[in-house]
Specification:
The chain has 397 residues and is an all-alpha fold. The chain has 18 helices and no strands. It has one domain: Growth Hormone, Chain: A, CATH 1.20.1250.20. The longest helix has 32 residues. The radius of gyration is 20 Å and the shape is globular. 55% of the residues are buried.
Amino acid sequence: MKKIEFPLLNRLLPASDGSKGIIFIALSQFGLAFSFNVVMSFMPFYIIKMSPYKPPETMVWIGLIMGLNSFVAAAAAPFWGSLTATFRPKALYQGAFLCNGIIFLLMGFTDSLPMLLALRLIQGALGGASTIGIFMISQLSSKDRLAGNLSLYQNSMTAGQLLGPPVGAYAAAQIGYRSPFILSFLLVGVALVLCHIYIVEIQKREAGPDQSSHFDQGVLWGWALSFIATIHLTFLPSILPHVLEGFDLVGESAVKSAGFIMMGYTATAIIGNYVINRLTAGRSLKRVITALCLASAFFQILLYFSGGVISFAVIRMLQTGVVAVVIPLVMASFASELGGTGIGFLNSARFAGNGVGPLMATFVLAGSNLLTLYLLIAALTILFVLAFWMTSGKRAG
């Protein structure tokens, strides 16, 4: 069968098949992140609308549905990475996209919270796409380009997170809650087709066995830093209705405000990732990572003292601007020395943080207040970065 191509894309992209592959791996992650955030921006409101329970019980359901699937994905990430030594990475990558698209469609047609939770858990178990994408980039990149390509990969996901919330909030408010799920299904389908056409094959024999059978303490605390950095990025959406209620924003105005707040702080995450990566090239990764984590802890506490929705949004934007780059910097410190399973282990920190973020936020808030939540996240950040500083070896220095 003759291979279908798009001439305009071929003229715009570099001639190297490897370069095209990296670009389309990044673009596909943009599509998947966009699809997730199109639905996640209004998910708390969707659950509240659907819920037959009282507000405290509904708050717990929000945490479970938004976060529990990420624990399953965290457990599965090393497994998906290990499969790259047995199966073709590109085929695994496409399979993960296909399954995610089907799950998006099914979620839009359920009216049961237990069923919605079940679909999210299945999505978590099949959510190996980002691990495989990181592995493929590590195989296609030279050592001096790895950090930049991983930053591109991270920024592509973050860009999807930027554009998804306002689109999802607007579509849910104007067309109905089902429309963003259908949009997600279609977009993942387009990404799947483009992956099939433009991502080059990486044969399983090229992946090779893992180069390390164990992880030293530096890698373990690097995992912890990626974990807490992800919590910084993901804890807020599940409690935004409560935060905005404190600023006298409710109903449709709260839904729209939530989307634009998420858009704003995700934009600064993209900018911070790009600018900091450029400014710190050639510098000590350990020192840069430590400084960024301490700054993010400071902004986390400062959120409590915001006097209104605008100052809250500005502080949040500054916070994500410094913390988002921690994840690709940690990954670049170790990825070239780890095989598929090791990359999966590091990437599992993101999934675990995605799960703990909303769960921590909703459970702490259900039993305490915002100050307790903010102090807890800041304290864990300081603890983890100090441990990383003391135990990380030459690779992170």
